[in-house]
Amino acid sequence: MIQTKSKILFSNYQIQKRIKELGKEITEDYKDKSIFMAVILKGAFVFASDLIRNIKEDVYIDFMQVTSYQGTETTGDVKISKDLEEQISGRHVIIIEDIIDTGITVKKIIELLKMRNPKTIEICSLLNKPSQRIVDINIKYIGFSIENFFVVGYGMDYDQNFRQYPDIRIL
């Protein structure tokens, strides 16, 4: 593993506390409804696993793998290398992201999923970088808003490194 200096931005305690709040909010919003979570790999898998344990309604989960980064920079070119296997027509879909900065990737995902006729589509992102937004998107559930830092840990990586940190760090 690459050794590098990093600064903790959010401790695991802070993350878990916020995820409990998000789980409660989602549970209240989807009372007596089942939820279909479209988890964006690879970065959001840790967040999604903790989040579903804090939601009291039925949660169905599937995964998409979407790439738009090379190193620390977004390329703007969105590629789907793994699509959902489950049908989402008529379902309440929540897209689970680790971080949203420009919004380009999640906008393309929404456009693709809307063609499959879900009942509703919302976005839940652990991190939000509003200063980097290029496209207009509505993120209903936000864990934390951050400045323009490149972060790793809690499932997020730099060239496949640092995902294992239990906290979120500035690289």
Quick tags:
six-stranded mixed β-sheet; alpha/beta; three-stranded antiparallel β-sheet; single chain; 3 helices; 9 strands; Rossmann fold; globular; 171 residues
Give the class-level CATH name.
Answer: Alpha Beta
Helix vs. strand class: alpha/beta
- Biggest beta sheet attributes: 6 strands, mixed
Annotation field: number of helices:
3
Q: What's the domain count?
A: 1
- Biggest sheet: strands side by side, in what order? 4-3-2-5-6-7
CATH topology: Rossmann fold
Give the % helix: 10-25%
Question: Can you walk me through this structure?
Answer:
Strand 3 and strand 4 form a beta hairpin. About 20% of the residues lie in helices and about 35% in strands. It is α/β, with parallel strands linked by helices and about 170 residues long. It has three helices and nine strands, in the order βαβαβββαββββ. The protein starts with 6 loop residues before the first strand and ends with a strand. The strands form two sheets. The protein has a six-stranded mixed beta sheet with strand order 4-3-2-5-6-7, with helices on both faces. The radius of gyration is 15 Å and the shape is globular. The protein has one domain (about 30-150): Rossmann fold (3-Layer(aba) Sandwich), CATH 3.40.50.2020. Helix 1 crosses helix 2 (about 45-50).
